[in-house]
Amino acid sequence: MIRTENIVKKFGKLQVLKGVNTLFQSGEVISVIGPNGSGKTTLIKCILGMVVPDSGKIFFDGKDISNDFSYRKDIGFMPQIGHYPENMKIGQLFAMMKDLRRISSELDEELLEEYDLNNMYQKAMRTLSGGTTQKVSAALAFMFNPKVLILDEPTAGLDPLAAEILKEKILKAKKQGKLVIITSHIMSEVDELADSIMYLFEGKILFNKTIMNIKTETGEDKLGKAIAKIMKQNNHV
Ligand code: ADP
Ligand code: MG
C-alpha cells in the first residue's frame, strides 16, 4: 500500500534519513519508534509529500507520489504539533476542512462527539489548551474516513481518558482494514495497538519486526524490556 525505496533526506549538512526502505500494508498498525531526532517525523512528512526527499522513491498503491498528489485524500494525518489559524473558531475550522475536501461520502464525526468538540464551536483556536488542539487534530484525521491514518505522537498531549478514546478509535480503524502508522514513545501503548515495530536509529532502520517476534526472540514479555535487550545486543546503548 505504501512503499518507500531508499529514501535519503538531508537538511543542510545533517543527513536525517540514510536510505529508508519500508513496506506498509492495509489492515496493519505499525509503530515507528526511535530516539528523538532519529527521523521519524521527517519520514512521515516524506510520505505525506510535505518534505521532498533528496533521493529515493515513494509509492502509494503502486503509484509514484511525486507525479500525483491526489493520494493525499486517502490519508488522515495527525501532526505532532498542529498549527491552525489562531483566530479561527473550531466550528469554522471544521466547516473549512469539509469545504476543502468536498467529500460526498459519510463523515466520521465520532471523535468530534466523544471529545465534546461540537459544544466548543465558538472557541477560537488560539484559546485552546495543547490537549484540546490535539483533540481537534485527531477529529480531523479521522473525519474523512481515510484508508490510511498517520498519527505522529498522537497521545502525547492528551489526558488519560482522551488517550483511551483515541486508542479505541485506532483499534476500530484497524478492524476496518485501514493502515495505521503511529509514532509513540509510550511502550505500553505501542504494545496495545501495534502489530509491528519499525525502529529508526540515526536515519536508518535498525529493525522491523512483529511485536510477537520481538517478544519471543528476547524472551521478554514486556515490550520496553524486549526492545532494550535488542538495543543492548546491537551495542546501541
Ligand atoms: P523525530 O521525529 O524522530 O524526533 P525529526 O524527523 O523531527 O525526528 O528530526 C530529525 C532531525 O532532523 C533532527 O535533528 C531535527 O532537528 C532535524 N530537522 C527536522 N526538520 C528539519 C528542518 N525542516 N530543517 C532542519 N532540520 C530539521
Ligand atoms: Mg517527531
Order of strands, main sheet, comes to: 6-7-8-3-9-10
CATH architecture: 3-Layer(aba) Sandwich
Query: Count of DSSP helices?
Result: 8
Contiguous low-pLDDT stretches (5 residues minimum) are none
Helicity level = 25-40%
Radius of gyration over C-alpha positions, nearest whole angstrom = 18 Å
* DSSP, total strands: 10
Reading off the top of the CATH hierarchy, the class is best stated as Alpha Beta
Bound molecules: adenosine-5'-diphosphate, magnesium ion
Sheet/helix structural class: alpha/beta
Describe the structure.
- The structure is a single chain.
- This protein is of the alpha/beta class.
- The chain has a single domain, classed as P-loop containing nucleotide triphosphate hydrolases (Rossmann fold, 3-Layer(aba) Sandwich).
- The protein has 8 helices and 10 strands.
- The strands form 2 sheets. The protein has a 6-stranded mixed beta sheet, with helices on both faces.
- Helix 7 (211-218) packs across helix 8.
- The two termini are 34 Å apart.
Describe the protein's topology.
Blueprint: E1 2-11, E2 14-24, E3 29-33, H1 40-48, E4 55-60, E5 63-64, E6 75-78, H2 90-101, H3 110-114, H4 130-143, E7 148-152, H5 160-175, E8 179-183, H6 187-193, E9 196-201, E10 204-210, H7 211-218, H8 223-233
Parallel strand pairs: 3-8, 3-9, 6-7, 7-8
Antiparallel strand pairs: 1-2, 1-4, 4-5, 9-10
Helix pairs in contact: 7-8
The chain binds adenosine-5'-diphosphate and magnesium ion (MG).
